[in-house]
């Protein structure tokens, strides 16, 4: 993993140990444009700052023990943005691959793409596929990049493929659909984080996120730092996931233990 700065080493020992770490964290990285506007800067600067911040959060995810992270990089609805901004977002993704791939590979990050590459510039689509292939053996962190992705579109594609495979209607179950979505071999996200104060999923992982815990913060994505990421994971650790059961049932399955004293990581 990349060498931490002096301030990061100091912060590391300022944060309490996480006693319950989600396996899979998904993030809606929202607020780049508003971050820039508040500073009187072009939206493009906000997008670039958001990209810089992603590197720090990936590093923190590895440090905190998160095994899978899914980021919402470009939605199917984002095509409706001004053409200049769409082209910029495409260019930023290409630059990230060119600049960050080696370091991500060295840190043990496995890159996966979820979404559709049809309609994407051929050169960029090829680079996305090459990045996935280049890092496929890594196991330290799986990074799902939701690019040209939409939750409803994902379900439509799943149903179309189920029909093509000739599965009878009476044989289709929730498990069947789960076997046909992009993240078929991964656990559903335990925690979905959204920055910039919004309280909606915006067509992100709507099948997988049915029972995910949701954490929102007013902080814009470029300012969502390592400490706030840690706070989101702490909040997750305080929640009780019932999955439709009662508190008494949960208590019976998982008897409460005395809280552990917080200690440095």
Question: Which consecutive residue ranges, at least 5 long each, have pLDDT under 50?
Answer: 257-265
What's the CATH topology name of the domain at 20-150 and 189-236?
A: Undecaprenyl pyrophosphate synthetase
- Largest sheet, spatial ordering of strands: 3-4-2-1-5-6
Largest sheet: 6 strands, parallel
Structural class estimated from helices and strands: alpha/beta
- The 3D shape can be described as globular
What integer is the average pLDDT? Answer: 89
Give helix % range. Answer: 40-55%
Q: How many whole angstroms does the radius of gyration measure?
A: 19 Å
The proportion of residues in beta strands is: 5-15%
Q: Could you give me the name of the CATH homologous superfamily of the domain at 20-150 and 189-236?
A: Decaprenyl diphosphate synthase-like
- From the N-terminal CA to the C-terminal CA, the straight-line distance is 16 Å
Under CATH at level 1, the class of the domain at 20-150 and 189-236 stands as Alpha Beta
Q: Care to describe what's here?
A:
It is a single chain. This protein is α/β, with parallel strands linked by helices and 265 residues long. The chain has a domain at 20-150 and 189-236: Undecaprenyl pyrophosphate synthetase (3-Layer(aba) Sandwich). The chain contains 9 helices and 6 strands; from the N terminus they run H-E-H-H-E-H-E-H-E-H-H-E-E-H-H. It has helices at residues 6-12, 32-38, 43-64, 83-106, 122-134, 151-164, 174-178, 226-238, 247-253, and strands at residues 24-28, 68-75, 109-114, 141-149, 191-194, 213-216. Strands 3-4-2-1-5-6 form a 6-stranded parallel β-sheet, with helices on both faces. Strand 3, helix 5 and strand 4 (141-149) form a beta-alpha-beta unit. The radius of gyration is 19 Å and the shape is globular. The two termini are 16 Å apart. Residues 257-265 have low confidence and may be disordered.
